[in-house]
## 1
Amino acid sequence: MNRRIMLLSTVLFIILSISVSAKSKPKNLIFIIGDGMGIAQIHTGMIKNGNTLNIEQFKHIGFSKTYSYSHFTTDSGAGGTALATGVKTRNGMIGMSPDSVAVKSVLHLAEDKKLSTGLVTACAVTHATPASFVAHQINRNMYEEIAADFLKTDIDVFIGGGRNNFEKRLDNRNLSDELRTKGYQVAHTEKDVAAVKSGKLAGLLYPDHTPAMPERGNFLPDMSMKAIELLDDNKKGFFLMIEGSQIDWAGHDNNADNIALEVIDLDITIGRVLDYARRDGNTLVIVTADHETGGLTIPDGNIKEKRFNAYFSTKNHSGVMVPVFAFGPGAEEFSGFLENTDFKQKIVNLLKL
Ligand code: MG
Ligand code: ZN
């Protein structure tokens, strides 16, 4: 090869490398899970909200296949575990492979790389979805063991219910005291949370689960924005999981009006998160579900009157694909068809975990 061609190819290689690395990667990731939120669930919220939702701002849209290792239709343990750890496992398991080996979640991996980490959930922090990002247990009902697993992490912020799993335990440990010893500020009310301006925060605001909408008020949007405020001063970035938990429970109840209320609550949260992400410019926002609940269909309704007729085909989950929405640097990675196990590796690549 003559020198001019060598020089030319070197220059071309450099230009190519720059353009590849210029394909921007996010610093922060906000992973939003609507438990039980299929397309029909989103539609109930959209109709009740006047035929519009913040979620319509997303341009990168895909589908996630939700089946578990053991079942055609997943539960929230295996569903959360797949999203968090990239492993399809047996229904009921938390943060473990089918042969009961603990698997690290994206939250653990972010922690290892010194990113700030957090989770905000509209139920007990020990419940299956948030637990999948923090704990390793053979059964999702082992709430006290799951609570103890929070102490084995360095998670910076967690806010939800589940206080009794930390403070009223069969083993008489008081995990809130242990958290304080580890340097956490333990908050029992939204006012306590609002007073925290920096540092680690354990927000255990309800003895059991947070209330359903509308009793829960602005808990989810407000606590999510507080978590972002506390996490986003880390130069290395942050990982935050936010769960709209009770879309699923309204689905189990076959109550479409309550599904709409829970979807709108999550959508308000999504709107505020997107405002933040747009301001920040380095934040990737992903919204998806662990599974659909209720086998919901909406054959008829009236958009002007904000009403619809809802029919459910099951009191349990269904096996259909769920939607995926992404915004920010790397969002294009999440369009098209995905396995629920694909999120983890994509997040690892984008955040360089
Ligand atoms: Mg859940
Ligand atoms: Zn469920």
## 2
Amino acid sequence: MPAVAILSDIHGNAHALDAVLADVAARGITEWWCLGDIVGYGAFPRDTLATCLGGATRLLAGNHDLGAAGRVPITDFSDDAATAITWTADALGDDGLAALERLMPMDVDADVALYHASPRDPVWEYILTPRQAEHALVQSEAPLTFVGHTHMPAVWQLTGADGLRPWPVDAGPVALDRGRWLVNPGSVGQPRDHDARASWAVHDPDAATVEVVRTPYDVQAAQHAIRRAGLPPGLADRLALGR
Ligand code: ZN
């Protein structure tokens, strides 16, 4: 099976998505998956939704997608997020919302399980600590599980002998040799690890590796579009800071 790119948390940032997909293609990778939060925060939800519907071979809904579609209450979101979701639902129109209506926050197969947030709570749970990662790995049957939602790239390994081990995300491909693995590719459209570049991952099943990749994009153009759309200015400011 050829390598696949895993993208998550695009959040209506078409500048970041287009740059990542150009990078994906330049690496000769032809298949990509998306772990959800296609929309919300950014100024181009129609574009990012259309790109995901047209290109991703496995596609999840995240909490922001479900919020825009009215499938989770808007009162569950922070003020800026709720403002952006209301704006996004308006921008998507009936056809966009109908497309979001059909997506689920998880897609589990025998080899690679995908959840927007976590196996226990595919919509909302943030996996940030080793304890949370270990719990998620115990709950997932698949040898390899991808989650998004935190906007923080992470690679965790769980073995019977050594317990949970975090791996560096900036040191090239990691060999998936023993035990079970949990990988967060980070966020394409709103990274929060103090690195403004778009974050995503490559899984090569033949080589049995996973790698977190960073792709620079035109942050200023994405910020300008957010301000011009009248979205909360903090949503533009944070893109340059990567948080
Ligand atoms: Zn998100």
## 3
Amino acid sequence: MEWLTQISPMRAFSARARRAAQRVGLVPTMGALHEGHLSLVRRARDQCDLVVVSIFVNPTQFGPTEDYRRYPRNAEQDVKVLGPLGVDAVFAPEAGDVYPPGFDTWVEPGPEAEPMEGESRPGHFRGVATVVLKLLNIVQPHAAYFGQKDYQQMVVVRRMVSDLNLEIDIVVGPIVREKDGLALSSRNVCLKGEDRKAARVLSCSLKKAETLAASGERDAEKIVAEMKKIFAAEPRAQLDYAEIVDSESLQSVKQLGPGSVALVAARVGPTRLIDNTILEIT
Ligand code: AMP
């Protein structure tokens, strides 16, 4: 496994692969890898000749009061878990190389970036879209792998790839969860003691939404009200939003339709968590 920290060797790696007609898959991550990331790596391994995992905690997607400095970093452990999966290269650039002095060109995402995370984290998706485009331009993959865990991010990226005519397949993997339902996240290591138990509230509220949808409830407002009740019963959790939206536009819906998505964000102790589920309608 090659460990590349500079942009030009990364480009050279991909140029060689392309000359050899090898399909390159990129899994962009911020490191502190867990089974959610690894599920994407395995999928890329199945579908591509060469797999590149990028590890980059992107400063431009964090707001000034957010946890950029405290974000979990664990490069040594990341190398250990990636080796046995047959990853060909890890691209782990320095922030100063990705954003050299004077850098000032941004990808401004469309309306999908406005609600929910966009409202709570102004500028977040501008940073995400910009770094994803940079990574795609540097690594030049044929396919890039994203998790449903960050549903809104996945929609913003898909839209960017389509709007900017990038010839890259965006592959989306399902959410990997702990036994008790908590979606895996690098931030979960920050959940201490009782907060870890309380964090179940996110997946519990989504389960409630699934159950109501499966039993025929179509009134999104009623479902959201039930989801909020679950948060209200957990004093350690501070709900940011609970929404049911259209799967493509991400606008709130009044009535559930095919593929409506329920999304939640909450702070549990000092840790901000997000989760979502696609509501099946039978
Ligand atoms: P991150 O390191 O948090 O930026 O995540 C890197 C990629 O892994 C993103 O596409 C995430 O959506 C995906 N991911 C994170 N957590 C999970 C999870 N629990 N299940 C599946 N994919 C995930």
